[in-house]
Design a protein that fits this description.
about 30% helix; Rossmann fold; globular; 7-stranded mixed beta sheet; 11 helices; Quinone Oxidoreductase, Chain A, domain 1; 6-stranded parallel beta sheet
Length: about 325
């Protein structure tokens, strides 16, 4: 089978390897689509965050949708032909989903989840980042009357935007430097700020009568946006840091203390996040198809990663095996 291996900074290769054999507790999944996550990009370029979890060589694909083709004799919860996602631990198992087939060991102990027929494999490959967004949303718990700022319109920021809108929150401001991503955000109901051309602080203050927003989601992981999260959130407001950071940034703790801000770091998955994700997709309250900007065959993984590295032209990039 074809299998993608990252050997170092921007050194990615598609190799021929044996299809994994499974034991009595394992399942084998035919991967139908795998999304390139922002964390995958960090590992592809080899920055500070990218080198944190595991040494090269590696395959860090984890946003996948697939179909079960083989099941170990002791597995009870998963069956052949089940459409599935989640349950993958590429760090511990040494195998990611940028591949034609994926083995998940000890399947009954893993949070592998079945995906309804109404949800496509392309959408299933985005359920993991949607769950990240949902957990960020519930960590801060925006009220319907809150004014919300989302810094960064990548897939997680766009999912957060839709989740806020589904709750009836009307004032959702999205700041983004990528014209393509900003256009998607506006189509999904955001008040858009072109951070490449506009003064973000000036515009946010104008939109909030100088008070700042009630809730800020920092989804860009950049030095300027981290500072903006603190400066543009009103007194006693809440900030959710949901991105990964390739560079260190300075935040003035006095500003946090003097404004009585509450700052959260994104945590682990909530127990019912998958069920909520499925419900929101089926009810059309979260649209994942508009987030897909590019699809590449597995053999073109290098090109796929290079495109994903350019937010000016990409949103969510999918890698799709041809089997």
């Amino acid at each position: 089978m074809k299998y993608v291996v990252i050997y170092g900074s921007r050194d990615i290769r598609v190799e021929d390897v044996a299809v994994p054999t499974i034991g009595p507790e394992d399942v084998l999944i035919k991967v139908k689509a795998c999304g390139i996550c922002g964390s995958d990009i960090h590992r592809y370029v080899g920055d500070r965050f990218g080198r944190r979890l595991a040494p090269y060589p590696l395959n860090s694909g984890h946003e996948y949708g697939g179909i079960v083709t083989r099941v170990g004799k002791n597995v009870k919860r998963i069956k052949v032909d089940d459409r599935v996602t989640l349950g993958l631990n590429w760090v511990r198992d040494g195998m990611g989903a940028f591949a034609e087939y994926l083995r998940i060991p000890n399947a009954d102990e893993r949070p592998i989840r079945k995906v309804p027929e109404e949800i496509s494999f392309n959408e299933a490959a985005q359920i993991e980042p949607l769950i990240v967004a949902l957990n960020g949303f519930w960590g801060v718990k925006p009220a319907v009357t809150d004014r919300v700022l989302i810094l960064g319109a990548g897939p997680i920021g766009l999912c957060l935007l839709q989740r806020c809108r589904s709750e009836g929150i009307e004032d959702v401001i999205v700041s983004e430097i990528s014209p393509r991503r900003l256009d998607v955000a506006r189509q999904l109901g955001a008040i858009g700020i072109d951070a490449a051309k506009e003064d973000v602080e000036e515009r946010v203050h104008a939109l909030t009568d100088g008070e700042g927003v009630d809730v800020t989601f920092e989804c860009a992981g950049a030095v300027p946006t981290t500072k903006q999260a603190v400066s543009l959130t009103r007194r006693r407001g809440r900030i959710m840091l949901i991105a990964h950071y390739s560079k260190r940034t300075e935040i003035d703790p006095e500003e946090i203390v003097s404004k009585n801000l509450v700052v959260y770091g994104y945590g682990s998955y909530a127990e019912n996040a998958f069920e909520e994700a499925i419900r929101l997709i089926l009810e059309d309250k979260i649209q994942l198809k508009p987030l897909i900007s590019h699809e590449f065959p597995l053999e073109s993984a290098k090109e796929a990663f290079e495109v994903a590295l350019q937010p000016a032209i990409s949103v969510k990039v999918l890698v799709k095996p041809t089997v």
